[in-house]
Each structure stands twice: as structure tokens, then as C-alpha cells.
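Record pair follows.
FIRST:
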Amino acid sequence: MSLLPDTAALAERLAKLLGGPAIVTDEEERAFLSSDVYSSSITAALAIRPGSRERLPDAVRAISEAGFAITPRGGGMSYTGGYVPSRARTVALDLRELNRIVEVNEADRVITVEAGVTWQQIWKTLDPLGLRLPFFGTFSGHRATVGGGLSNGALFMGTARHGTAAEIVTGLEVIDGRGRLIRTGQTAFHNGRPGFRNFGPDMTGLFVHDAGALGIKTLASLRIMERPDATEFSSFAFAGQLEAVRALSDIARAGVTEEAYIFDPATTRRSLEPASLKRDMARLREVMRQEHGAVRGLREGAKMVASGRRFVEDGLYTLHCVCAGRSRAEVEADVRRVETLARDSGGLPIANTIPKAARAKPFEPLNGILGADGERWAALNAKVPHSDAGRLIAATEELLSPYQERMEALGVSTSFLYIAIGNHIFSYEPVLRWYDRWLPVHRRAPEPDHLARLNEPAPNPEASALVHEIRGAIVSLFAQFGAASNQIGKTYPLLASMNPETRAVLTALKAELDPDGLLNPGALGTFELIREEDNARG
């Protein structure tokens, strides 16, 4: 299609810097790169897909000089408007072609990768070496990228012991809004190599979890570790939510698991649907391969088959834990501790199919981006101390109660996920599910055979409007609790929630790195409005 004159001029300039194939003008492709899992509104005027990092600083400078905004995009798994343009004069920056693993330094236990590398890519590279990342990926790690994860607080695999993606990064290469190439960690110093992060102020931390508003990540160095020699799995059923939550917090505080998470009854049922049996047989083969010794592998595989897929009655909450360590004796001691704490809160041991299957093949194709009947979903999340978890859950349920009649009428439902982060933080994730037309990512992310079995729902603006209303109410509630969130994007009021002094420092940092406000405008909050309000107060 023909571009507006100023866009065409910018496209021509960028083609000279990056090469013609890096310039994306096709309207359908630009629409795809401008929408996320939850929303789609303005389509970027232009998109670029650079194949190398070398000329990218010049390209960013050219875009800024032309007065266009830049929205950096990784694997496209955001549901918080993280890279959805807020204005038409935007260049969508697709970083997926920056997907090279630059170095695996086994001696120094550091891996350096480009921002478009996926968590699955790293796993496949390190696994044959007997290595892995401490935190090693998200549910969406088949497609989600390191750059996107570091911008949005990636968590899950290994998180109960090792924290989130932010805890394992030792240094970054970042391009700011002026086109300056900034290095953090030891590589920022003469003759420095990736390693120690905290020589002086933590510059790396400034660019982590920034939703791409402070800089464009192009390279990251991450800590790696030996893969644990022994792994065991435990699952428990609880009659009520509060009992399961209490057990999760107790187990997290004990520091004996790599993962600890709760599925509500609806999520448990979805995880055990007979339709996924074929997929689980592939996982079963992986379980048997990973176990040391043929006899043990056969025994563990037989347990998964014998457990069946209907061992959980309706209405029960299930808690799932993964313990890992250097020796089986050490891990078995951790498992016994988990069992004691779970039983103390009324948990009954059940077959450990769910965590075992998740670990056997951690990075599945993203068929789950749509529900079993083709419905859409979008999550919200709040991170609070364990002592606040019960109050937050109760307040959220009270908030949702008046909506129930409208939700039922419009086919909107909820499910919930609860995750331990380290030994000190409780993560609460309400998920809203509803039927509406699919967005571009829903048509691309699932496997074609899986997508062919689903029917796209008819447009349902009423349901989507209700979901939007409920999400806004939940976000406001989380802010009242002083909760933190990952994947901030343009959904959570980060700036507005800060005390004025802290906000002033962050706003000044944004002005230094992005003086024209063109790096992902609206992400983290609206800096321009905040700056005007603060100036008005004197």
C-alpha cells in the first residue's frame, strides 16, 4: 500500500540503514505488530524488523528525528497494551530477528543473547550441556523473548526459589531515545566482561521492567547454573481457597521448592481435559527420558498413566510443587517438608500429573492462548507480601460480586492463578475469559491443526466492554493495596501510584533518556501529564 509522504521518506531512510527487507509496510503485518493478546486500536504507520544490531542505534535516532514514536516488541505475548501504539505516527520495532545466542560461557556461568532469543531457545542450548537458567522461562516461553521478559517482569519456571527474570540478568545493551548505545554491568567498563552486576549503582536495574519506556534492549547477559540432578513433584487438593493459599505461603517461606502454584477448580479441570491426552503422551515420553535409569523412568511414566485425568473432584483447589537439588536425599527431604506444610493446612496428596507434565516439556506451543471453545482470556496480577494475600483475595472477590449477573448474561467468567515468588512475595492473578472476535495474535500463535478445530466467536462488544470495566476496577483495587505488578505496559498506573519524590526522579530519568517522549509513549504512565501536574504544584 502507499504510505503518507513523511512515512515514505522515513521508510526510505531506514531502508538505507537497515536494508530493504527490514522495512515492513504491509498493512496486515503492521496491524499484527500493533496489537497484543488483549487489545488492538491504532495501527503503526511503519514497522521495522532488523536482522542485526549494528545500525539499530542510527535507526532509532532517525525515527526520533522524524518525530515518530517507537514501540519495541518481542514475542507479542503482552495483554497490558505493552507495545500497542498510542498514536498513528509510530514505528513498531519487531525484535524477533535479533535471535542469536552470542556466547555460552560455561566457565563463568554466563550466557549472552540477543533480545529476540526465546526462553525455549536458551533451554535447548543449555540442556545438552547439563546447564540451565535459574529462572528459566514463562508459560509462553515457546514464543516469549528475553527482551520482552526483562521489560515486563517475566516469571514462573524456577521462580519460587530463584525469583524472576530481573534477578538473573547481569548486564544489558540498551538503545535510548537519543540513539545512544548504553551498556550496563561490567561490560560498561573498559575491558569488562559480563559478570558482576553491582559495581557502583545498579544501572541494569534501571532498564529492567520498564515496558520499553526507558530504552530498547538489544543484548542481555544472564546467569546460568548446573541443571539439578534430582527433581520431585507434589500435588495436593484443598477443600477451600484459603487453605490452599495458606499452604502456598507456608511452603514458599520455607524455601524448599523451585515452583509452587495453585490452580483454582476451573483451571484444574482445563488442565485435565481428555482432549489433551495425546499431548500428554508426548510429555510422558519426555518424563521417562529425563529420569535417570530405565526402571525408574518406566515407573514414573506408569504413575502418570495410572493417575488418570479425573483424580480431582469439582470445587477443589490444587497446589503443585517442584523440588529440585543436587541429590535425591536432599530433594526427598524437601518433599517431606512440603507434604507436612500442605497437610497442616488440610491438603490431601493427589497424583502429581500437572507439575510433572509441565516440567517434562516446559515450552508447549501456544494453543492455550485461546480457550477450549475459542474464547479469549486476559490476566491481571498483583504482587504482595504473603501477609496481605488473604485480604487482597477477599477484596477482589467482593469487587467481583456485583458483576456476577452481567457476567453470566454475557458469557464472561473468571479463573485464578496463585504463584510463589521467592520466599517473600505472593502473586495473585485473576483471569477474565469471554467470547469475542479474535485478534491477529490469536490467529497466528496456535498450531494450525489446533486452530482448525476451533470456531471464532462472533464480535461481542458488550462482553468486551464489561471485561474492560472489570479490569479497570481490579487495577484500581490493586493500587489501593500498594500491590506491584509485572507486565505493566499501559494498564497499571505506575507513575500515578508513586509518591511525588520518587515519581520526580523517574520522570527526570525518562527526560534524560527520551527527551522527546517517543519511546513507547503511555507505557508506565503518561510522563508528560505527570510532569505538567508536578510543575503546576511548584
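SECOND:
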Amino acid sequence: MVCALRPLPAAAQEANFYIFGQGQRIGSMTVTVLVTDDGWKVTSTGTLAAPVKLNTRLAEVTYDKAWHPRTLVVDALVDGKASTVKTTFTGTQAASDIVQEERQFQKTDTVDPQTIVMPNLIFGAYEALAARVSTAAPGATFRVYVAPQAEISVTLGSVSTERVSGPGRTFEARKHTLTFANPGGPLAVDLWTDGPRLMRIAIPSVGLEVIREDVATVASRTSSHYRANDADVSIGVGSYGFKLAGTLSTPANVAAATRLPAVVLIAGSGPVDRDETVYGIPIFAQLANALADAGFAVVRYDKRGVGQSGGRGEFATLNDYAEDAAAVVKFLEKRKDIDPKRIALVGHSEGAWVALLAARRAGSVSAVGLIAGVGTTGAQLNLEQQQYAFRAANTAEAERAAKVELQKKVQAAVLTGKGWDDVPADIRKQAESPWFASFLAFDPAPVIAKLDQPLFVIQGALDTQVPPHHAEKLGALANARKKAPTTEVAVLPGINHLLVPAKTGDVSEYVALSDRTISPEVAAKIAAWLKAVPLR
């Protein structure tokens, strides 16, 4: 498919990219794009530590101005061994001279006259794909030559606009969802462009990301679900000496002097940003948008030590995260556009526990919503999740018993500080943390018993991380309180832990979810309940 070539200055434009695997930086590359009246030249150099040790000394692809490839040169070291590819394109023929693992040979492939040349693991070559998709409409199909292996097709799915904020600059980027028709099965790839230039690549199924340097820093963030009146907020956390960075979303066209009911969204476990992006699904960005449309002011924030927030997450406990949430409530209390008598906390997964703790120490909290919250102790959930994993993997009984015994030893050591000699060193390194100790020890029962705020429990029926019986348990604990309003429990059919439609709800299904939009029923249920909550 022919796409218009957007004009760029006839000068080399250089950009640095970082490569991440499973959240860890594994490489970098420098990409130079030169556009002249004669065509394109894309040059890249860089290193990669995994999945193979790759040192790309030079990778260069040239195209004419009508997007016909001309030449490819790759000079690299793969696991310390020289690997070179020199390809000349003539019409529909790609003739290559190749050196791989000390073997020299020639190869000729038939390719599309406008094929996009993208050697494996040479991410700079995505610049040509970025330029092509930047002017294409959903449904467009491109031919891509994974030189020198084979040619495949790439189909453009949806295209959406995202806002990127960084030091001194805010701009809009375009996110393109792509499907690569690989021989081993379709591969989903997300590609972001800044104009016709490459900004970011994400391959969720293998946990790989390639991010341009200027948007890879913690000072920059990308938001897929933003509102025209969204405001960045900075919230001090008591005596800790750092600030949380967040976003305040409000309804459109609010009359002057209106004091809005407010919702504080509290994310689950792990280094989660304000959008609570999990497996590429911005759960809180979508939920905040829907609740703002329903008439609420909504604050979501980067967890301490994540994104643009200060502080350190590696030493934080559930109580520390509750202090952060309480600080957000105090921030809202001081705002003239917020009704201090209608500030609710809504926590997801572990965030439900944080919401319960924060409600005890922030006096203005009028209601607490628990989404996919845990109704037992953390230690009990930990063992329950282990049993589910055994069933999913058909683990033999003898192996189950041994692993359960080891897990119990780990839990005892974490909670008491004793017995580490019976735990392998690598497992101790993972388990010995203040957060895990606070997680295992937490029991929602005594905390709920001391709360007098209205509670609401909402759960996905297909949740396998926190199964639905936890919602029933939380509802029973809440309804056992004296002089407290009845607690409603809503279990939504067909919804998983990430609040999106699913088939099985298993974690292994997350990367292949076709619908990455949270169920509208989640926000609708929460909004309806909050509007009906009586003033305390």
C-alpha cells in the first residue's frame, strides 16, 4: 500500500532509544534518519544483552522517494561472532550476501516492490514502518521483509492519540496497534509515532519495549485516556519529605463555584503508575475518565517511587501506602472546588486494603469502594494462589506438598524473622521485604470492624487472582458491623481481575485479550453507589 511521505528537513535527525526486557534495561541504540529529495536512509548502531548478545556496529537501509528499498547493510557481532548481510533490491528481487557463524552464502528472495526492510532485532529499521503507518488508515496492510529470512504481512489495527508530558514539553503522539503475521502465529505489536518518527515500540507477549530517550525518563509520562481539562497535581506526603505526582480529572462544563464530590483511586501491588497500566491496559485512566463523566472529580497518582512521584517503594509497607492515600484526601479537603463531605476512596486489588487503612486515618473519607479486594489474610491468599497455580499446571501431589511446605516456611520466616536457614537464598532474596511482611500479616477483618463508612464491594466473576468468594467475605465482614449501612456486593459476569471481558480469567490470558477496555459496568456501579451514599 502506498502512503504519502511526509516532508522532513534534508538533514540527519538522530535519536537515542533504550531497550527494555521484562522491565529491565537490556540495551540501547542510536538511530539516524536522513530524508532528501532522493529518498530515505535509516542508520542504527547499538547493543543488546538479551535474548542474544548483539553488537550492531552498523545497520543501514536505504529507500527511494517512492518507498522502493534499495540496499541493506548489517554489520554485527552475535554472541561475539561476525554476522553480516548485504542486500541489493531490484524490483521484486532481494539478493543477499550473508555471513553467519563463519558460513558465507548467497540468497535471493521475492519481495514486494515497496517492502519495508526490518532485519530481526534491528529496531532502528522500525523508523520506516513508523513513517508508513503514520499516514495510513486502520486496515492497511504492509509487506515487511525480515531480512534475510522471509517476507511477512503487517496489518494496522486501531489508531489512537495519546498525550505525552515531559520537562518543558507536552505533545500528542499516535499509538498504532499492529499484527505481524509471523510463521509461528500472529504477533501483536504497539507502535507510537511522533509525527512520522518512531517514539516507542511495545511487544507485550514477550515483555519487550523500545523507548526513545526523551520519553523514557521518569520525568515523562504518556496518557492514553486524557481529558481536555485534566490537571497535573503535586501532593506532599506529611513528614516523608517527598511529593506524589497525579492527575485530577473533572467533569466538563462545571459551573463556577461548584464543589464536586471526589474519588481517590488507589492502585494495586507493584510499581504501578497513576493509570494503573497492567499488561498494556490503563485501568485507572479509563475508570477516572468514566467517573469524571459521571460528575466526580477523580485523583489518580503514581505510587511512591514510580513515574514522577518521589519517595522509595522498596521499603514501603501497606501502612506507608495508606499514608500516601491519606495525603491525597488532605489535599482534596483544602481545594475550594471539592466537597469535603463527599470524598471517597476506591482501591483496586491490594489498593482495596490500602483504602481500608487510609479510611481509618483520614477523617473526611465519606465512603470506601473495594474492587477485587482480598477478604482473607495475605498469607491465606498467597497459599490459595499457589494452589490455583498447581491446578493450572497439573502439578503432581508429591511436588505440591513439598512446595506448600516450603511456602509455609517462607511465610513464617518473613513474619518472624526466624527460620531463614531452611529457605533457599534466591527465594529469601525475593521474599524478605517490608512490603511482603505487611502483605502476609494483613487481615481486613479487624480493620473493617472499626470503620463506620459505607462500603461497596465489586468483583469480576472470572477473577482468578482474587477469586469471587473474597468479595462475599468482605461483604459479610462489612455487614457484621453494628450501626453501619448495608454493604452491597456486585459480582460482574465475564470480567477478570483487570476489569475487562475475558474467557477464562487466567493470568496467562492477559497478553492475548482482544478487548482491552474495562467494563463500563464497573464505573456505572461505582458512580451509582457513590451518588446514593448518605452524608455522614
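COMMENT: The chain has three domains: 13-221, 225-375+443-532, 378-438.
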